[in-house]
Design a protein that fits this description.
Distance between the termini: 20 Å
Structural class: alpha+beta
CATH architecture of the largest domain: Sandwich
Number of strands: 10
Number of helices: 9
Number of domains: 2
Helix content: 25-40%
Radius of gyration: 18 Å
CATH topology of the largest domain: Jelly Rolls
Low-confidence stretches: none
Order of helices and strands: EEEEEEEEEHHHHHHHHHE
Largest sheet: 7 strands, mixed
CATH class of the largest domain: Mainly Beta
Mean pLDDT: 90
CATH superfamily of the largest domain: Jelly Rolls
Length: about 250
């Protein structure tokens, strides 16, 4: 797994299909065989490439045990100028892109293939050019940077509003206008996403839950299962052999 503050590339086990809702633009590519995807409890569709937009409930399955996927944080890109693939929904016909992602995976998995990777290399590797950036109000950008640098933090929306000299009502309205979803949803997603930095942990799940900002292990398990469709212990157990290339969040 190659993980930065704004992107993730994952190659590994998919797990059993179950409903999940993530906060990124997600692209799945079958390593072998076909994928099956359905959005919001609709019909299943067979495909080689599937795209899911942020905060859309979905289920994904594959004929093989392993899958490739790419996550792009939506607040970092201008959705109107994204490549057509990343504006897709559900099953997408993109055999050339699938072959390219498999080739990139092969290079990264080869001995020395992931040496000296930088976050700015991500888009070039998978999309051939930097994805178009989303212009954001500087105050909202400041809050988002704070969340990304400290996804384990517990600052509430009123605290963030005060830091950027906005009333709470104006802050909530402006945040949703700029980002597309509420502060609460973004905070919940970034906290759940931070678990990806801890998949090799040897700590107890209670400690992991507290370390990444959940009040207790029950809330932690419920929230993670809603996001990823898997229990935290299953994510960690399935990641034991995963090699991590990470730009860690600030602690």
């Amino acid at each position: 797994m190659w993980i930065t503050k704004d992107r993730v590339f994952y190659a590994g086990l998919l797990g059993s299909p179950s409903m999940q809702t993530q906060g990124s633009i997600i692209v799945y590519v079958a390593i072998d065989g076909r994928l099956r995807v359905r959005l919001g409890g609709g019909e299943w569709h067979s495909t080689e490439v599937a795209v899911v937009q942020p905060y859309v409930p979905y289920e994904i399955a594959c004929e093989g045990r392993n899958v490739l996927n790419i996550l792009v944080e939506p607040e970092t890109v201008d959705a109107s100028r994204l490549p057509p693939l990343l504006r897709g929904s559900g099953a997408v016909h993109a055999p050339g892109f699938a072959a390219h992602v498999r080739e990139v995976h092969g290079r990264l998995a080869s001995p020395g293939g992931a040496l000296a990777l930088r976050p700015c290399d991500f888009d070039l590797a998978f999309f051939g050019a930097p994805l178009p950036a989303r212009p954001l109000d500087r105050r909202i950008a400041t809050v988002l940077d704070g969340i990304k640098n400290d996804p384990f933090g517990t600052a509430a929306s009123d605290e963030c509003a005060s830091r950027v000299n906005l009333s709470i009502s104006r802050f909530r309205h402006l945040f949703k206008e700029e980002v597309g979803v509420s502060f609460r949803n973004v905070r919940a997603w970034k906290r759940a996403r931070s678990l990806l930095h801890r998949v090799h942990t040897v700590d107890s799940l209670v400690n992991v839950a507290l370390d990444i900002g959940y009040p207790d292990s029950t809330h932690f398990s419920h929230s993670i299962r809603q996001v990823y469709g898997l229990r935290p212990k299953d994510i960690i157990a399935g990641s034991r052999k995963l090699r991590i290339i990470a730009q860690a969040p600030a602690l």
